Structures are given as C-alpha cells and as structure tokens.
Amino acid sequence: MLFFSFFKTLTNQTVTIELKNDIRIRGILKSVDQYLNIKLDDVEVLDLAQYPHLSSVKNMFIRGSVVRYVMLPRSEVDVGLLEDATRREAANQAGKAR
Amino acid sequence: MSFFGFDTTLPRDRGRGPGAPKGFFENSDPFAQVALADKFVDGDAVDFEDTYDGLGDQLDDDQDEFNDDTFGGGGETAPVGRDFDFFGRTAGVADVIGEEQVRYSLQNPQAAPAPAQRAAPATAVPAESTSRRTGYEKYSEPGYIPDLQAKSSVWTQKAEPTPAPAPAPAPSRKIMSLEEVEAIEAQMRHRGQPIGGLPPQQIPQSMADLYQRHPQHFPTLPDGFPQLPPELQAQLEKGGMPHPPPGMPELYGGPGPAMPPGAPFLQNNLPPQNMPPQGPRHAGPPQGQRPQNMQQQPPPPPSSRAPNNGLPVITNPQQLMHLTEEQRNTYLVEDAKRAKRNHKIFLLSRGNGLMTPQDKNFITRIQLQQLVAAAGNVADSDPEAVLAEDFYYQVYSQIRGAPRQHPHQPLGHFAQTYLLQTGNRLGGNRHRHPLQGADNHMQRMQQQVQRAVEAAKAKPKNKQLIIEGSLGKISFSNAKAPKPMLNIKRPDSSEGPRPKKVQSDLSLSDRKSILTNIERVYSALMSMEDMERTMPPPPEEGDADAIQEHMEWRQKLQSLNQKLWKALKVMEPIVPNSTTPHPFIAFLSHPKGKKAIPRIFRHIDQEQRVTILTMIVVHLDSLDVVRLAQSIPGEAQPSLAVREAIDLFSLAVMPSLLQYVNEAPFNIIIGLLGLVIAQTHVQSVARTKVGLGILTMLLSRAELVKEAGQAPERDWQQWVEKFNVLFDTLEPVLADIFPGSINSGDDMYVWQFLAAVGIGASPEQQQRLVIAVKDRVMETVGYSKSLPADMSSQRLGNVNLFMRAIGLDVELLG
C-alpha cells in the first residue's frame, strides 16, 4: 500500500504521466486508488501533434496498469519520510512472508 | 362355446356371487383396503370418524351464484369448450398448489403434522380428488428440504399459534387471501396464460379447503396484512375473485405486528378509477394491462392522475360514446398515456418481489464484505493498523497540515463511514416503513461485517481455491495482496543467506555491511519512535498499575536504546593506524548516516552524546567531510559530491553537536580541544569547513563559559594552555584556511572561526592574528567595493565579525 499511500499525498498536484504507449499527459492528479488507477483533470498532452485525437480531452481516468512513469513535483515529496515509509513497508512485507 | 375356447359370457351375464370377479369400479367397500392396511400398523387402528374433522359438513351450500359460470349452466348455448377440462387446469396450477401448501405449512407450523395423519383416510375418499396428493408426502422423507420461495411472509414473525382446529361455527368462505391470488396470478402470467381465461374458483379450491379446516385462522387475513378498508372487505364478503389492491404483498409482506393497522394502507388506497374495474370483464382495460396494474408497486402520485379528474369515470365503452368529441379525445390520449406508463412499469416490475428486503440486505452484506476486504479493515479503529498500512500518507498529512480541499478519510474509516451512511439512508425511509426491523437489519449487518472481517483476519488466508473436478484454480486477490503472477519458492531462511553473513561479520567496513548497519540503526530508531508514541500517561501517585505500566515501558525503551547504541557501533575499539575507518565514522560517511544523527541524538542520553562527539573529534581528519574536503592545489573547490556531503553534515550533524556542546561542562570542552590537538592533524583539519566549524564550536563555548564566570581558575589555566598550543599550530596556516580565491563566495565560517580565536586570544596573539590575515582583510574590503550594495555589505559584515572580536572595525580601514 506504500505507493497508494504515497500517491494519495500528491492529489491536486500537477503530475506528468507517461503511458506505456509513450503518450505523456500532464494534468492535475485528482485521485488514485489501490490499483493506482489515476484520475487526471485539466489534462494537457505533450507532443499533441502526434496524438490529435486527444486534443479535446479535458480530463481522464487512466488504468493503473498502463502507466509507465509518473513524474512528480519534487517539492511535494518528503524524502526522509518516504524512506522511513519504505522501511516500514519492507518490514511489514518481511513480517508477512515469514 | 367360443371358437378359441374363451369364456364368452358377458359380465352382466355372469353370476353375482361373492367369488365372481368384479369390475374395476365395483369395489363395494372403498375403505376395505384401509382397514386392511390398518391391521398391519401394529394394531393401532385409525377410526375414520376420529380422524375426519367434519369440515365437510360445514360446507356452505348456498353460495351457488357462480355455479353457472363454472359448469356452463344457465341460458348459454355456446358450443362445449374446454371449460370442463378440470384436470388440465388443475395440472396447470399444480405447482402453485404445491407451493401454496408449502407456504401454508411454513406459515402455520402446527398444521403440518395433522394432514399427514389425515392422509390415510384421504386416499380412500375418492371424492376429494385433490387431497390424494396432500403435498406433505415429501415431508416424510428424512432429507427433504422444502422448495423455498422468496415469500416475504416467510420471513416475518410466526403467526400466533393457532389452536387445534375445532368444529367452530365461524362462517367459512371460499375466498383466498390477497396474497394467494397474487401469487397465482403471477404464476399464470409467467406461463403466458391470460388471467381472464381462468375461472376464478378453480385454482383456489384446495386452498379454500385448507382454510376451511382452520376457520378461525382464515377470516383474519394472513399476518402482515393491515385491516382492509370496508369496501374491500365487502367485496371479499361477496365471494368470487377479489381483485387485490396493487402491490399489496410486496409492500406489506414484511414485518407485521409492529405496524399500526390501517395507517400504511392509506398509501395504497387508490382513487376509484385506478381500482380494477368491478363490472364485467370486457369493460376493463385491455387484457394485457391488468396484471401490470396489479403489480404496480407504489401507487402513482395523485398529480399524474390529475388531468383525469375532470372526466367522468369510464367503466364501459358505451359511456365513451356519449362523451363529446373533445372529451373523448382527451380520454383516449389519457388512456394511451396510461397504457404506456403501465407498460413501462410492467417492464420495470418484472423483477418485483423476486427479492425480499432480507435478500437485498444479504446481497448488500456480501458487497460490504467485499468492500471491506478490498479497502482494508473496518476494525482499523486503532490508529496503529492505519499507520502500518498508510504510514506515508498519515504522517505526511500530519506534517503538512490537513489535506487540501478534499477531505480524505483515513482508509480504514471508509468502510465504517459507508456503513453509517447506509444506516442513515434507511433511517430516512423510516417514515414510510415504521418498522423496527430496518434498524435491526443495519445493526445486524454492521456486526456481521465486523465479525466477518475479524474472522477473515484471524484465519490464515487460503490463497487459492481449486474446485473439485475443475481444471483451473481460482486465486483470491485484493488490492493489498494482489494475485501473484510468479510463484517463487522462498528458500528456507535457515539455508539461504547464512554463509554470507559470516563473511559480512569478517569485514566490518565494506560498503554493504555499513549500509546494513545503517538500516539497523534506522529500524531501531523507528521502533523507538513508535515506543514514544505509545508512551503511557505519566503515572499518578498510588496508581500501582500505571506505575507498573510506565516501568515496563521504560524498560522496553531502555532495551531499544541499547539496541540502537549497539547498532551505531560507537563503542567499537579504535584501531590506530588502521586502513579501514572506524565503523561509526564509516556510518557517518553515508548521507543517510549523517541524516540519522539528529534523530539519534533525541533518543540517547548525555553520556552517549558525549561519546559520539568524542568519537567524531578523535576521527576528525578521517571524516569524509574533512578528508575529502582538503583543497587540492589547482582546484578551486572540492567536487560537487563532497560539497553536498559537507552541506549535509553542516545541516544535520553540526546542530546536534552544537546543541550538546552548548550544555557541556567546561572540562569536557577542554578535553575535546586536547583531543583535537593530540589526535588530529590540526593544520589540515583547519583547512576544511567542518573542521573549522568544530573548532569554532569549542572555542566559542569556552568563551561563553568564561564570560559567565563559571570557569574555575584551574580549568581556565588548562584551557589557555591548550589554546596556546592550538594557536601556535595554526598560525602558519592562517592565511590558507580561506577557501579558494576571494571571489569564491562563502568564507563566513572562516571569519567566524577567526572571531572565536580573536576573542579568546591574548593581545599579543591578536597582533599576530591581524598580521596573519591582514592581506585577506584588505583584499575583501577592496573586493567588496566592486560588488553590489547588498553583497558588499554582507562580505564586509563577515569581516567585521572578526574585526570587532579584536576590537577593530572595517570602517577604520577607510
């Protein structure tokens, strides 16, 4: 649940999402769920000339499985906390595996 | 004599002697077989008179009005149709009859055993054709489970125990409850048979029979029904097929006794034109329409019927003829509209009554369980579990204030909230259904969900299900434990990484083991921080339990502290001239090691802090930030990575050290300065920012102690000795401690150091100091003149730090 927990803190931030088909979309992250499906608002497609069919799309729902990268605003990430959260997650996982 | 030698005498010609064979229908004693059978039932003969309840005697013989309809009497001369195909018709509704019997027995459990007993005589009475199959035979089979129907009445409270049927004088009527009529009609509709073609009294015969046996039960309508309005009651009294007000069973099948009689019925009390017409059939709405009319659940709101109000009620096509053209048009339009609407309702209502409210609740419960299982645990009321699952988000939102705009609830509370919401929604309905059942359902559901979740948590998860005989397997997954795509066997922890561990113990300072150490420190830190959160409230006087709790907590914290201390490896023996750095210094050489220091300092005591500080001071010139920061000739400044490390050290480690030093006793300061001089190469240490920073720290602390007059004379003497040694050592390199060239920027820390030295120095030392750095001062002052005003003043301010410390000012330099 770490990623879910993490992305939840990024709601209402502008993120850029690169899909597995190379489309890159910048928009405001409205919400995210456990499957890391993403809802974007005020969408703007980079390299729009290549994807004219997306020119009128204003918001979208992206299935989590098609996302390749999510580019985040650095200032919104608390690295130290994230490190600790990762440690906890690892400990949890190890605890479960045993 | 016949040709083939057969007996050719006709039966009528045969003798009628007792030995003569009889025709099939000529059995003289229909009960003979029963009597015969009774002999075998261990002598317990059943007397027919005993078992026959005499109900047949109570038959009401004067209700003959419909006999003509039924048997085609009267003046009708129509060709003989299939009106007398009783068997066919009975067969057509055989299922219904069976169902009705099951239903009745469920409703009326006491009645069940009686018919079984009655079965024996019944088989022998040819007149009661339908009671040959009583419908209860199945119950004699041990494993029989009745075909359960989604009858709402089944779920309601049981009927008051009916007293054993007694020959009561109550008038018996051959009418059915509305519910039964409805059920039969639904059944018929199912088979696509037009309702109208069904002679009303045929099907219910057996039911009427049943009810006749329980006269006092029957006249009161089945439980769950409110009091009927008088006109309907009257209609029922007349006998014949009553037309039920639409939607009755669905609406009122639910809990009965709690309902104030009559009140809810008002809703269904339709204005007359919506009642099914009572006149001859053909005057009614088209055939297909009627059943829908009956099904229509909530009565249409009055407003929709409003336009009709201005018109006379049309019950007969003749009436239509007398209307004006306009009225007729309006009527037809209305009619069409109504038909359309009814059709729509019909389409929507196909599933009506398929599920009882209880069924729906059951489904909702399943859905909720799914939801809860997917989303987390309802029982996440304890913050620990939430924190474990959702650590980053929880802490992040605490740190950065309340989450923006849309109020996220913590995950675990989601399900709880949802449950509450549904509770509210149902509560909103309460004015329509003044039922206590509703609340109970929700409560039960909540409890059940919670129990289900508890159980799910408790029981070890079965990861997959293999249904017997199937080829595939079903894996369960949820968001937290997704379906594993790969199934990799973990090596048993006893065999796997063991050999390596031995190796890592051998070399304490290879990168990997250092990193492992750091992680150990962090995990100890985190558990200590967790412990801190769970600190019990400070015990009050005399509260033994609280004190005990507190003691235990402290003990745990202490053991964690020991764990942390061990992981830090500060106490590892110092090996002089060793090529590998001390483990603690190695720890500090990693960024995350440096970052851990402030957190570590929060959780250790003063003694441990001074140990760490001593460790750092002793190893000052082997610290990465000192070792790598030596300015190499030809390069203006150390590499980017080193600069970052230095910045991090200054930001993370120095404040903690400074904080400690500011509280440290003077003798420790003296000792530390002695260590710097004795253990390290002071001249090279002084060329680095971190080294100078630590020296500044010690010097300024000593100065503060002196100012405050806390320093005993003997200590002070000791300090001055050390200081003199330091000064002498540093004097030759004072000009070189500045970083790079004059325009390289940040040299404030150097001026701070010089200021600290200057304050503590004797006048003679101050002279030497000025001489040593005079060039740099002049250069800086000159250089700052070429800078913009703010930068210039900043640079001059730095210089002034030092100048003021020795009683001068840049202004004097002109």
Automatic annotation (TrEMBL), chain A:
It is found in: Nucleus. One of its GO terms (biological process) is mRNA splicing, via spliceosome. Signal peptide: none annotated. InterPro entries: LSM_dom_sf, Sm, Sm_dom_euk/arc, U6_snRNA_Lsm2. GO terms for cellular component: catalytic step 2 spliceosome; Lsm1-7-Pat1 complex; P-body; precatalytic spliceosome; U4/U6 x U5 tri-snRNP complex; U6 snRNP. Gene3D superfamilies: 2.30.30.100. Residues 2-76 form the Sm domain. One of its GO terms (molecular function) is RNA binding. Keywords: mRNA processing, mRNA splicing, Nucleus, Ribonucleoprotein, RNA-binding, Spliceosome. Its main location: nucleus. Component of LSm protein complexes, which are involved in RNA processing and may function in a chaperone-like manner. Belongs to the snRNP Sm proteins family. Component of the heptameric LSM1-LSM7 complex, which consists of LSM1, LSM2, LSM3, LSM4, LSM5, LSM6 and LSM7. Component of the heptameric LSM2-LSM8 complex, which consists of LSM2, LSM3, LSM4, LSM5, LSM6, LSM7 and LSM8. The LSm subunits form a seven-membered ring structure with a doughnut shape. This is LSM complex subunit LSm2. The lineage of its organism: Eukaryota, Fungi, Dikarya, Ascomycota, Pezizomycotina.
Automatic annotation (TrEMBL), chain B:
One of its GO terms (cellular component) is nucleus. Its main location: cytoplasm. Residues 1-811 form the mRNA decay factor PAT1 domain. Keywords: Cytoplasm, Nucleus, RNA-binding. One of its GO terms (molecular function) is RNA binding. It is found in: Cytoplasm, P-body; Nucleus. Pfam families: PAT1. GO terms for biological process: deadenylation-dependent decapping of nuclear-transcribed mRNA; P-body assembly. This is mRNA decay factor PAT1 domain-containing protein. It comes from Penicillium cinerascens.
